[in-house]
């Protein structure tokens, strides 16, 4: 194994789990998340030799992941099945406990349009600044702000009065602000 391969293998082992979690939040399906991460790391491996600043690998990998997700969404390669849609109801049912709240939030997040979902995941899950999110998505900071506002509005509409009072939208799924 070359030094390049060893370094890549080490990076993959350290970061693929976190990227898989981000991918799941983007697409709402664990198998598709695995596919997105696999595609992302395949692209990263092809570019590995050209990457000279390894301190920015996370940002580069995250950007590749989000762009792969958005690109595949545009092509319509995947059709997600959502339990709430199968029931024919756009409202998300009330939940009573923290694990259930996470599931409710994930179900609602899956209904948010892909671009808005990407902004919400990067801003509130990955805790990135508006400027960094804009750079990763290749858009202006104003677009990030408007997409975040629309995405939060969509989530609020889906969760509306069914969310418990102590459950705040705009906080990370793990409770981080």
UniProtKB/TrEMBL annotation:
Organism: Solihabitans fulvus
Keyword Metal-binding found: no
Domain of life: Bacteria
Identification of the protein by name: SigE family RNA polymerase sigma factor
GO molecular function terms noted in the UniProt entry: DNA binding; sigma factor activity
Signal peptide: none
Family of this protein: Belongs to the sigma-70 factor family. ECF subfamily.
Matches recorded under NCBIfam families: SigE-fam_strep (TIGR02983), sigma70-ECF (TIGR02937)
Any one GO biological process: DNA-templated transcription initiation
Domain RNA polymerase sigma factor 70 region 4 type per the UniProt entry, residue ranges: 104-155
Keywords: DNA-binding, Sigma factor, Transcription, Transcription regulation
Domain RNA polymerase sigma-70 region span(s) in chain numbering: 19-77
